[in-house]
Predict the 3D structure of the following.
Amino acid sequence: METFINLVLGFLRYLAFNAVFYVIGCGLLKLLTLGRYPRWLPLRAGHWRQQAQDADLVALFGLLTSVGLLVLGLYLFS
């Protein structure tokens, strides 16, 4: 039972983490590419893996940008 609870909590943490950084990454990419990327495509049967990978890359971009801005802020204000 403890393993199941850890699995569910880990999954929820993964979803929350990706949701926060996806929003940050999506906003920044829309700003940098003047609204061109990431595209809002309807989920198609043959392309769901590619679209899921794109969402993970956008979240990774948001994470890296957040870390970079945090390091820059700490460097400038300390």
In short: The two ends are 46 Å apart (CA to CA). The chain has a mean pLDDT of 85. Residues 62 and 71 are 14 Å apart (CA to CA).
